[in-house]
Amino acid sequence: MYSLIDLDIPELGYTRFISSWLYSGPEMAFLVDVGPACTADVLLETLERKGVEKLDWILLTHIHLDHAGGIGHVARRFPETRIVCHPKAVRHLVDPSKLWEGTRKVLGNIADIYGPMLPVDPSRILTPEDMDPDAGIGIIDTPGHAAHHQSYLFDDRLFIGELFGVFHDLGGEIYLRPATPPKFIYEQFAASLDRVAPAADRKVCFAHYGIYPDGEKILELAKTQLSLWLEVVRAHLENPRKDAIIKDLKTQDPVFARIDDLPKAYRDREAYYVGNTIGGMLDYLQGA
C-alpha cells in the first residue's frame, strides 16, 4: 500500500509541496524522503496513525533539507531502520554542519524554518552497493538536481525525487517545470534523464508533488522542457533579467504557463524557486 504524506509548512505557506512517500506491505515498509526537521513530528505522527511500527528502509533521493532534514529525528524513532543514500551524501548525514551552513547561506530564513538536520550514526547508512538485492528495490544514479541525487524503483513505481522537476496535477492538465538550481550541469542532467528511460514504463512518484501514471510521457516532457528552458535562458544572456526570461518561458512552454492556474500561494512559492532554476542555467551558460 502506497501513501503520499503531506508535510506542509504553514510558516512558509507551503501546502501540497513537500512530501514523503510511504510503502507499507506484508514484506516490508519504507519511506522515500522524510522532509525537513520542522515537519518530522508530523511525519512520525502520521506513521503512528497508519500503524507503521517498523521501517525497513529510508530511501533518500538527495539530502537537501526539504527532503532529508528530518532524517536524524526519524532515525531515532526507528533505530533499526537502514538509511540509503548516494555515496556523496554519506558524510553530510554523519556530520551535517557544512550542509547546514551552506543551506543557510543560500536559503536564509527558509533554512531557519526548515531547521537543522540531526546527525546519523554511520553504521545505519547504506549506499547502493550495500543494498540487499533481495529487497527488490532498484537504484538509479541520477545526478543533476544535485550531484548526490538518485532515484528508486519498486514494483510499478519510479520515485524520481526532483529529476523530472516540480509537478502539480491541475485536474485534466498538469503543471511541470525543471528544477536546476546551482550548480547545474546540463550534460549531467540530460544523461540522467536518458539513464532513467528504461525504467520509465511505470507510475512516477514526484517529491514535489504527487503522482503521474505515464512515466514515458512525463519523461519526454521533462527532456523537452530542459532543452527548451536552456535555450530560452541562452537568448537572454546579454541582459539576463529573470522577469523577462519568465515571460518568454510562459510564451514558449505551455505546460509551464499553467503556473498562472495554480493557487496564489503556489504561484508565490514557484516564483522564488523558478528563479533558482533560471539561476542554475545562467551560471552554467556563463561558465560560473
Strand order of the largest sheet: 1-2-3-4-5-6
User: Largest beta sheet, briefly?
Assistant: 6 strands, mixed
Distance between the termini: 45 Å
CATH architecture of the domain at 1-136: 4-Layer Sandwich
User: Looking at this structure, what is the CATH superfamily of the domain at 1-136?
Assistant: Ribonuclease Z/Hydroxyacylglutathione hydrolase-like
Q: Extract low-pLDDT stretches.
A: none
The topology string of helices and strands comes to EEEHEHHEHHHEEEEEEHEEHHH
User: So how many helices?
Assistant: 10
CATH class of the domain at 1-136: Alpha Beta
Determine the strand fraction and express it as a percent band: 15-25%
Q: How big is the Rg? A: 18 Å
The global form is globular
- Which topology of the domain at 1-136 does CATH recognise? Metallo-beta-lactamase, Chain A
Quote the average pLDDT: 97
Relative helix content: 25-40%
Pfam family, one: Lactamase_B
InterPro entries: Metallo-B-lactamas (IPR001279), NDM-1-like (IPR050855), RibonucZ/Hydroxyglut_hydro (IPR036866), ST1585_MBL-fold (IPR037482)
GO molecular function: hydrolase activity
Domain Metallo-beta-lactamase: 17-208
Give the structure's gist in a few sentences.
One of its GO terms (molecular function) is hydrolase activity. The protein is α/β, with parallel strands linked by helices and 288 residues long.
Explain this structure to me?
With 288 residues, this protein is an alpha/beta fold. It has a domain at 1-136: Metallo-beta-lactamase, Chain A (4-Layer Sandwich). 37% of the residues lie in helices and 18% in strands. The chain has 10 helices and 13 strands. It has helices at 40-49, 65-68, 71-77, 90-94, 97-107, 109-114, 186-196, 215-234, 242-252, 264-285, and strands at residues 2-6, 19-24, 29-32, 57-59, 82-84, 125-126, 138-141, 150-154, 157-161, 166-169, 174-177, 203-206, 210-212. Strands 1-2-3-4-5-6 form a 6-stranded mixed sheet, with no helix packed on it. Strands 7-8-9-12-13 form a 5-stranded mixed sheet, covered by helices on one side. Helix 1 (40-49) runs parallel beside helix 3 (71-77). The chain is globular and about 55 Å long. The mean pLDDT is 97. It holds the Pfam family Lactamase_B. Residues 17-208 form the Metallo-beta-lactamase domain.
